[in-house]
Amino acid sequence: MTARFAPGDRVRVRWAHPPGHIRTPYYVRGKTGVIERICGSFRNPEELAYARDGQPVRPLYRVHFDQGTLWPDDQGRANDGVEVEIFEHWLEPAGAAKEGGT
Amino acid sequence: MSDPGRGHHDMGGLPAGPVERGEHDYALWEKRVDALLMLLSDKTRDLVRVDELRRGIEQLGSGAYDELSYYERWIASITGVLLGKGVFTSDELGRKMAEVEARAAGDRT
Question: Across the interface, do B55 and A26 touch by the CB < 8 Å criterion?
């Protein structure tokens, strides 16, 4: 499956709260980060969780967030970051209209 | 904390106590639960996937989630998945549990 994003692209995690089994942690939703790498394509765990086949496979990305983006009150060093693996359907180009969060 | 969009289990970034760093032994039943999942999720059986296990744990509800221990959550979720797939029925499971309980009580006397 062709990956929509490439390393270095700025992406925003969708500000969404669907019911069900979700693999995108709450603390990154609505936040902006940078694609660090493409991890490969995998069956969708949000479907596998309900005994379905999880097809088609979807690209999974490792996304880098500056610590301060996630927790503005954080007292850590300026360069501290967090990397989270996120499936493509949770990501939008960072230029897209802001739906919430920061 | 009370945000309805956040799942109870989804607690990354929330205030928490210090990390317990001590090593501890597992009880025999905990090792058995672990072994049970390994067998149920292997390629030949493929009855309980890790994604289903996690979904079942998340669906325990906040009360049970907080009260149950790690492997208690596992066995509660595994039970739910197997019931859902018809591997056994509630009635069969209940009768077997009563049988094992009676056997254990017999061993104690």
Answer: no
Which of B5, B55, B58 minimises the CB distance to A50?
Answer: B55
**Predicted TM-score of the model (pTM):** 0.86
Q: What is the per-residue pLDDT across B12-36, written as a single tens digit (0 to 9) for each?
A: 989 888 988 888 899 999 999 999 9
Cβ of A25 within 8 Å of Cβ of B84? The answer is no
Token pair, residue A31, equals 């936040």
Least confident of A27-31, B50-54, B59-63, B76-80: B59-63
Enumerate domains of chain A plus CATH numbers.
10-93 (2.30.30.50)
SS3 A93: strand
Domains of chain B by start residue, with CATH: 28-108 (1.10.472.20)
CA distances, A67 to each of A11, A21, B96 (Å): 16, 26, 51
Q: Comparing C-alpha atoms, which of A70, A71, A46, A43 is closest to residue A57?
A: A43
Measured CA to CA, the distance from residue A17 to residue A8 in angstroms comes to: 26
**CA angle (B101 as vertex; B96, B105 as ends), nearest 5:** 150
